[in-house]
Amino acid sequence: MQVTLKISRYNPEVDKTFHYETYTLEAEPTDRVLDVLERIKGQYDGTLSFRRSCAHGICGSDAMRINGRNMLACKTLIRDVGEKITVEPVLGLRIIKDLIVDMEPFFDNYKKVLPYFINDSPLPEDGKERLQSPEARLRFDDTTKCILCGACTTSCPSFWASDEYLGPAALVNAHRFIFDDRDQAAAERLQIVNDVVGVWRCHTIFNCTVACPREIQITKAIGELKMALETGKLD
Description:
Elements: E1 2-9, E2 19-26, H1 33-44, E3 63-66, E4 69-72, H2 78-81, E5 84-88, E6 95-97, E7 100-101, H3 104-112, H4 134-138, H5 157-161, H6 167-178, H7 186-193, H8 207-211, H9 218-231
Parallel strand pairs: 1-5
Antiparallel strand pairs: 1-2, 3-4, 3-5, 6-7
């Protein structure tokens, strides 16, 4: 099939603002948008810039807007988006070049929620790992799936308004550790997210949940953080 890609372009060395350039080429319906972008860069225009790494939906580096929706280019099939495709950088972050945005504010917010295991108690006497029941693991299993692609955070109007808002991805990772019964820093993290730029900036519009390529129930997780703050309970 013949496809036409309308791609947002911006080179800070020569452009004052972004513009669109259009490319028409042959593609298979089962090609991914990433495959076509690679073909354009390799055969038509080597100046086109975008991020990619594993190309299998694990690294999260190729999040972009495809026909107005945040998606991973490596997971989006041509047959699912049609013959005319508009590709743009995600919103809310400074454009470095073309489809590449500055992810530093995103990762700065991620770091604020202490996204790592904290437990200073002595290890079990037998030297084995700290065991956890399947039921306890299930409590936070969904939020372990985050790949930090930023698709959720950059689909959120609250983040567009202010990058001081921690954003859905940071809150998802706070959830992952707050509800882990082996971790000992739940109270500290709850204090961090209990802020006007934390969970209370979320207005429950579900953009983040729709955008997540891992199908994490993000809005539900943020709601559970709000409930924990209101009740003082993690069950």
